[in-house]
Amino acid sequence: MADFKLCISDPKTTKSYQKEVKGEDASAFLGMNIGESVKGEVMGLTGYEFQITGGSDFCGFPMRRGILGIRKKITIAGGVGFSGAGKGIKRRKTVCGHKINENIIQINLKVTKEGAKKLADALGVEEKPKEGKEEKKEEKKEKPKKEEKPKEEKKPEAKKAEKKAEKKAEKKPE
Known about the structure:
Layout: E1 4-10, E2 15-21, H1 24-27, E3 37-39, E4 49-57, E5 71-76, E6 91-96, E7 104-113, H2 119-123, H3 133-142, H4 156-171
Parallel strand pairs: 1-7
Antiparallel strand pairs: 1-2, 3-4, 4-7, 5-6
């Protein structure tokens, strides 16, 4: 039996959640393609609907739309599986096909229809308070700054006089 790690992203809140499915729940994903819709009831999330956006296999190779078969080496200039090396540069890369099979470990999902509960509550995840720029600014304002006195720069003439005095002090003990 296949086990999958689901990476569920919520475009409205811009947060992502992880869930693991095993057994019969996981077998519902076998044979599905990138771009297909999945009902939330399959994962125990009633009212939700998701879209498969990609995934990766047990070696970490990404799934790519339009590729038939389990794994292929293709020449690509951009897109999934290739970050790019410049304009017009093509590389030969290994990618997985668009159909979910036993070799796939991770499936990426996007929320297309929301249910009654929030996704975090439905998955049983506690939301951490977000530390934004505003909070960091407030912390900086609260800390009192130490008053530093500007260093007095000596004039070049005074520096020369000091050096001469030091040299004379070194010569006298002889």
